Amino acid sequence: MKRESDSEKGWGLETRGKWATVFFLNGIGDAVLYLPAVRALADLFEGRLSIAFAPIKAAFLFESIHANKVPIEAWYKPPAAPSFDAGMVARAIGSTDIFVSLVNWESEDLAELVSRLRPSVSIGRGPLFQHQLRWSPNRHTVDSTFDAVKVFAPSAVIEDFWGLPPMPHLRRIDASVVRDAFPKCNETLAVHLDTKIGKTWSAARVAQMLERFLAGHPNTVAFLVGMECKLDSSLLDNERIVSCLGLPLATTMCLLDYADLFVGVDSCFLHAADLMRIPGVGLFAPRSARQWGFRIGPGVSIEARHSVCAIQPELVASALDTLFEQRSYSDYRYRVPL
Description:
By secondary structure, this protein is α/β, with parallel strands linked by helices. It has 12 helices and 15 strands.
């Protein structure tokens, strides 16, 4: 007989008087995806929560959450799990009754950290933990991490904790100043297409998609977010394409709140757009949109088998047309066979 995971049983463990630590150590996009679970745990433990996290530059995401923050210095050497000084992190956390790991990997450093902390309750992926979370490529990452909340509160609903927490005040002001400088328009399209090698769409296809979409929507302005987007200078001369590249991460997150539509690759900004419920089109390869795409939407996920370069600009522009015209809250998924 197949043994149920504890997240499926929903045991409803006691939280009163207990101090908990939630741990995650991945990319910025992952930190965004963990937000509903972290916010719910903070609500459950009412000031008795430590957040041990990396990367450190994601700290602004948790600034408004009432918890003890423990930034972790980590070293990344993919495809291996991130490494960190378990002793140093354990000393920074101190005593904890409950340890919750939201990462989908196992490592010697993580095992050493749990051993040093000696929590009475441990939750996470794999045999290291007393209560094991269920991860599946056919299930969204947000749901897999939120199972940690349901160990304590089986009736918890993820939608109650959906959305970005309040962003830093000065960054909101900065974003407002940037938005006020846009040309006059009825709608805005946020565009993010630079990320890790292998998930980035080509500049030529970005240009074709923008030309096609903006031609059909003369009252829309597109603004580019991220670090770089190597578009032809003649296209950037178009007053309806505004470069907001290179802004601080928190400012860009605030700027997204002004978008009516979003288009982008699998990245932190796509996940943030989903949390803000901005209608969007996401480009995915090689990772699955089922696990990493829009969770609530409205979103159109376009998947290629090996590379996003197989995705045609016309398909992306048409998907944006669908969202623009129908503002549908259904989740669409197109698959590109190449």
